[in-house]
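User: Let's play a game. I give you a shape written as tokens, and you guess the letters that built it. Ready? Here's round one.
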């Protein structure tokens, strides 16, 4: 009987010892990586959801405002026109914008050609609104000084014609609102190159 107890005792210790090693491995290695991968997956899904809703314009206004002050992904360093040598005083802002942006019929790409010259002290974003209805057509995210955005994608297609538009320029200093201004411009929707001409 004592041999039987001894045998059980040894088996029990061996089983416990083996179990502890497995727990150590699971606790130190796999468990840590599993938790990291789960959190990474959650963060990636959250980021993708925000990007999806931001592009669709379905975020709540405060969240959309936060997304809109991120740097514009289409912004390129450099200049579209000759803006060298002009000096601005503190509080001044120089707007370089296509006064008659054009869209081809059936398309949504608009040549806004917005430039924030390097001599400006503020970052800015531009939004185009139809004057007739106040409807947002599209715009940029934040464009920092020394960068430009050549084209934006409008939220909808428009029929051929001329549309009075308000270009609202919102200024930012280190992501904080710093004022703004509005310009009246004309959006031209032209017939497509292959359509309607004889």
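Assistant: Ready! My guess for every position:
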């Amino acid at each position: 009987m004592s041999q039987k107890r001894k045998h059980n005792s040894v088996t029990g210790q061996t089983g416990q010892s083996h179990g502890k090693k497995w727990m150590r491995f699971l606790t130190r290695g796999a468990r840590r990586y599993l938790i990291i991968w789960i959190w990474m997956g959650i963060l990636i899904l959250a980021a993708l959801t925000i990007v999806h809703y931001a592009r669709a314009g379905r975020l709540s206004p405060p969240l959309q405002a936060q997304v809109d002050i991120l740097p514009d992904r289409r912004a390129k360093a450099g200049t579209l026109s000759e803006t060298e040598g002009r000096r601005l005083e503190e509080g001044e802002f120089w707007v370089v914008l296509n006064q008659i942006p054009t869209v081809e019929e059936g398309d949504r790409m608009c040549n806004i050609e917005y430039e924030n010259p390097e001599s400006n002290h503020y970052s800015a974003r531009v939004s185009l609104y139809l004057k007739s209805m106040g409807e947002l057509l599209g715009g940029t995210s934040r464009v920092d000084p020394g960068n430009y955005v050549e084209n934006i994608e409008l939220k909808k297609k428009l029929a051929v014609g001329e549309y009075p538009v308000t270009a609202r320029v919102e200024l930012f200093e280190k992501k904080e609102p710093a004022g703004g201004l509005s310009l009246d411009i004309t959006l031209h929707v032209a017939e497509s190159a292959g359509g309607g001409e004889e």
